[in-house]
């Protein structure tokens, strides 16, 4: 198999046109087209159908794309592999996750892991959830953490547990001491919403639809950490859970149970097609301990 042909195929899948793919790899469009043709002829397959200037993946192309990314990722890792052998340094544990859970869950787990396994370096890569699926298909990670479901259906995650979304208010707000809140209680408060590409926004919107209620959005942000800081600044309320809430803002924010249950499941996942990192199991245990402590602390706070 011609690896350059494989690279052209992957770039066309990402870019949508042969011209942009050729630019990415510094080839003429005709040369890129020939490489793509070589790949199709070698295996007697059709990877794309032509639609004006765009190349539309065939079902075979769609199915082959994750495997192509995996092969290219393994090739890209060869220099790192030999560099690692020459340095004789411990192999870094490569973590991937999306931004929402970094401060509240992943970073505390890394700190605890460094205490348990001080000789194992960690490399953390953070991607928007919409890009996390592509990174998973690239297979360049040892351990992934995410809310569930995962953005790809080719991996079976290990479930950490489930928490409930709550109304996040500044602790000095008059409603912060309530046992439970519903749409009627907050209908006149400024709502700081996550944008509609996020899992949390979709969970909230579905719950509001089932309750036949509406919330008027005052501010909209794409990251939970931004919403929490606006709540900390007394600009309104948002929805959060005790696992994802940033420890830096947590002392200023009250999480009040919501009238309608809004469950948020969390999990971790490992690469399915290669050997595990020797310390992946140790990190999984630390992550589970941190998650359980967050849930336990939230339950204790509710009963006090």
Automatic annotation (TrEMBL):
HTH lysR-type domain ranges (all copies): 1-58
Record key words, sorted:
DNA-binding, Transcription, Transcription regulation
Write one Pfam family the protein is assigned to.
Answer: HTH_1
* The UniProt record lists the keyword Transcription regulation: yes
Kindly give the SUPFAM superfamilies that the UniProt entry links to this protein. Periplasmic binding protein-like II, Winged helix' DNA-binding domain
Keyword Ribosomal protein in the entry? The reply is no
InterPro entries from the UniProt entry: HTH-type_LysR_regulators, LysR_HTH_N, LysR_subst-bd, WH-like_DNA-bd_sf, WH_DNA-bd_sf
Task: Tell me which family the UniProt entry assigns to this protein.
Answer: Belongs to the LysR transcriptional regulatory family.
UniProt-recorded name of the protein: LysR family transcriptional regulator
């Amino acid at each position: 198999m011609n690896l350059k042909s494989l690279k052209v195929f992957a770039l066309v899948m990402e870019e949508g046109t042969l011209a942009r793919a050729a630019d990415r790899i510094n080839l003429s469009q005709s040369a890129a087209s020939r490489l793509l043709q070589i790949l199709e002829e070698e295996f007697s397959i059709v990877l794309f159908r032509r639609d004006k200037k765009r190349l539309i993946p065939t079902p075979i192309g769609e199915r082959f794309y994750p495997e192509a990314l995996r092969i290219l990722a393994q090739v890209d890792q060869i220099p790192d592999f030999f560099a690692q052998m020459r340095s004789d340094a411990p192999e870094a544990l490569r973590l991937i996750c999306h931004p929402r859970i970094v401060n509240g869950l992943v970073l505390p787990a890394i700190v605890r892991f460094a205490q348990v396994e001080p000789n194992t370096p960690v490399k953390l890569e953070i991607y928007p959830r919409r890009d996390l699926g592509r990174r998973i298909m690239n297979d360049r990670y040892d351990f992934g953490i995410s809310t569930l479901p995962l953005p790809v259906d080719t991996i079976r995650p290990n479930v950490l547990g489930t928490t409930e979304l709550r109304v996040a208010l500044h602790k000095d707000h008059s409603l912060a001491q309530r046992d439970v809140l519903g749409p009627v209680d907050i209908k006149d408060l400024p709502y700081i919403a996550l944008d509609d590409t996020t899992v949390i926004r979709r969970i909230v919107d579905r719950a509001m639809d089932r309750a036949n209620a509406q919330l008027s959005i005052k501010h909209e942000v794409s990251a939970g950490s931004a919403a929490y800081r606006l709540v900390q600044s007394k600009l309104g309320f948002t929805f959060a859970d005790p696992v994802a809430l940033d420890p830096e803002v947590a002392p200023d924010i009250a999480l009040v149970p919501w009238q309608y249950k809004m469950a948020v499941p969390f999990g971790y996942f490992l690469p399915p097609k290669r050997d595990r990192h020797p310390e992946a199991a140790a990190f999984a245990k630390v992550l589970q301990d941190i998650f359980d402590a967050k849930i336990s602390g939230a339950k204790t706070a509710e009963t006090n």
